[in-house]
Amino acid sequence: MKIAPSVLAADFSNLECELKDIETGGADLVHLDVMDGTFVPNISFGPPVIQSLRKVTLLPFDVHLMTYHPEYYFDSLGKIGVDMISFHQEAVIHVDRTIHDIKSRGIKAGIALNPGTSLSALELVLPLLDFVLIMSVNPGFGGQKFISYTLDKIKVLKKMMKNLNLQIPIEVDGGVSSANAVLLKDVGADILVAGSSVFGAADRKKAIDVLRS
Ligand code: DX5
Ligand code: ZN
After folding, report:
1. Helix (H, G, I), strand (E, B) or coil at 11
2. 123 C-alpha vs ligand 1 centroid, how far in Å?
3. Mean pLDDT for each consecutive 10-residue tract of the chain (213 residues)?
4. Number of domains within the chain
5. What is the domain range of residue 174?
6. Domain of 158: which CATH number?
7. How far is the CA of 90 from the centre of ligand 1 (A)?
8. Measured CA angle at 59 (ends 110, 87), to 5 deg
């Protein structure tokens, strides 16, 4: 199980220390939430901040684009050197093209699905993906309550992959905590994104260990 702390819940006045803290605490990835104030009702940060953060940690960068026109950001994210980019199926008309756009830059491509979006939206492009991001809250804010029907959704996705002979990592994002990490592992989640449950804890290493175990 990989743990990807979400910077959205970190202390923005001290991001270098926050990233070093999760790096020594054993995080596997850094989850970076980019919001445009239109696709989701909030804004966060974009490529300039991600570029600065790239200098202070060796951890892989997992960028979650909660934006319309995710392709606007691919050039700059490619130059910065991020490892994974997910975009929302709901935000894009040319899903196939967008996946290829990301992969052509040597970056792992993932599709994010809102809680209310059916898995059928993934069916045709699943073999092209490097990972799938299942939202377990409505995107836009940290610290929300985990939506438990997404557990069944992950189970069904796992079955879909099995039927297609695919093994694609499933990332789960939103409301992940020690209260649901075991359930998520049981249904087949591979990467847990955790904002408030990691950065809200005084001991980040302990919080990461608890989620992983
Ligand atoms: C929500 C973001 C999440 C968020 C998770 O829109 O995509 O990555 O930071 O935060 P928590 O873990 O606090 O729900
Ligand atoms: Zn996210």
Report:
1. coil
2. 25
3. 98 98 98 98 98 98 99 98 98 98 98 98 96 98 98 98 97 98 98 98 98 94
4. 1
5. 2-212
6. 3.20.20.70
7. 18
8. 20
